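In this section we walk through a basic example: taking a raw amino acid sequence and producing a predicted 3D structure, encoded as discrete structure tokens. The instruction is simple. Fold the sequence below.
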Amino acid sequence: MNATDTREVWLRGPLPDMPVLLQPVAHALLQAREEINALMADFPGELLWEKPAGLASPGFHLQHLTGVLDRLFTYARGEMLTDDQLKALKAEGQPAETSLGVQELVGLFNEQVDKALTQLRTTDEQTLTEVRGVGRAQIPSTVLGLLFHSAEHTMRHLGQLLVTVRVLTGNMQ
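The resulting token sequence is shown next.
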């Protein structure tokens, strides 16, 4: 990949060592990472927990993006959430629960994307239709369903974050 390539990630070609059927998930996560890093590069920290018109704050979106990837990939491995993951879920959107700033939250998201990509690379495509339980109720999904939803959910929150940041900063470009 050329560092100056401005095409969307999916148009840059296949990712090395990524299972063919999981390329779209990886492309979406990498696209989200690029856009979030660019969007939040100069975002003022004092606006991190602002909720314009009652929208979720940028801080919530950054925490939630990280947490959702962690939780959905945990379920895709066939594991239950740990106490730490449940505690993090409860703390999403609660500014008093974190002293992390914008760049620290973006950094945690970047780390979670790296972990997700590693898991995608090691996922056996033969397991994609295996049933996995979600949550305490063990609602049935599949490995592919969870991985696809992680990408879709990430892009949904990226869009919401984009709008919220632009409203807060007055940057409507």
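Looking at the output, two observations stand out. Strands lie at 131-134, 139-142. Residues 143-169 form the longest helix (27 residues). In the next section we compare this with other chains.
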